[in-house]
Amino acid sequence: MLEENAKSQLGQDIHVLHEIYKGKKNGYFVEIGAYDGVEYSNTYLMEKDYGWKGLLVECNTRWITSIYQNRDCIFMPYAAYNEDNKVLDFYDTGHGLSGLVETNSHISSFSAPKIYVLTKKLTTMLDNARAPNFIEFLSIDTEGSEYEILLHHDFDKYLFGYICVEHNFIIDNRLKIRGLLESKGYVLSRENRVDDDYIHKSLLVNNA
């Protein structure tokens, strides 16, 4: 299915909207690692054509202006991580491989400017955004910190129906994420190149 505002790299937005939620209007999304808010966005189509609201998280100051210009949803300029208000080094490589040095040590090998970023836990940001307790879609692409973000999230307070998480073929992180999400009631829905997708078992029951 072709849609003009579909921006995701691997068809994630089309898959979630039409295969999982059957064209649902007015859902809620969270996209961590939002880049510029448009290119490769897994949620741009949801907002622009389907009336979804949501939260974008992106700590790279390079993209703040673009996000404000192109998106209408809530935006938080923090680094999602395992604790609140920690200051960490972030290397801006100028493309989608930028990330926290603490969870991605190879990034320092790039000739890239370093900036300092403030961390927030996912649960804290959802509290501040006054997000609903059930969130249809979570997308995480943070080049190495995905497990730490999920490990310290309160799934009892905020439940996600469908999660798309990048693993980038880092086997240890991929397995830890899988074990964690399975313990929270998720089932691996599909492997999509650099991403693994998980669906909560409650959606499987409702769609049966």
Structure description:
With 208 residues, the chain is α/β, with parallel strands linked by helices. The protein has one domain: Vaccinia Virus protein VP39 (Rossmann fold, 3-Layer(aba) Sandwich). 27% of the residues lie in helices and 27% in strands. The chain has 7 helices and 11 strands. It has helices spanning 12-20, 44-50, 64-70, 122-129, 146-151, 171-183, 201-206; strands at residues 28-32, 53-57, 74-76, 79-80, 87-91, 99-100, 114-120, 134-140, 159-166, 186-192, 195-200. The strands form 2 sheets. The protein has a 7-stranded mixed beta sheet, sandwiched between helices. The protein has a 4-stranded mixed beta sheet with strand order 4-7-5-6. The protein starts with 11 loop residues before the first helix and ends with a helix. The model has no long low-confidence stretch (mean pLDDT 91).
Secondary structure: elements and pairs:
Blueprint: H1 12-20, E1 28-32, H2 44-50, E2 53-57, H3 64-70, E3 74-76, E4 79-80, E5 87-91, E6 99-100, E7 114-120, H4 122-129, E8 134-140, H5 146-151, E9 159-166, H6 171-183, E10 186-192, E11 195-200, H7 201-206
Parallel strand pairs: 1-2, 1-8, 2-3, 4-7, 8-9
Antiparallel strand pairs: 5-6, 5-7, 9-11, 10-11
Protein name: Methyltransferase FkbM domain-containing protein
Domain Methyltransferase FkbM: 31-187
InterPro entries: EGF_Rcpt_Signaling_Reg, FkbM_mtfrase, SAM-dependent_MTases_sf
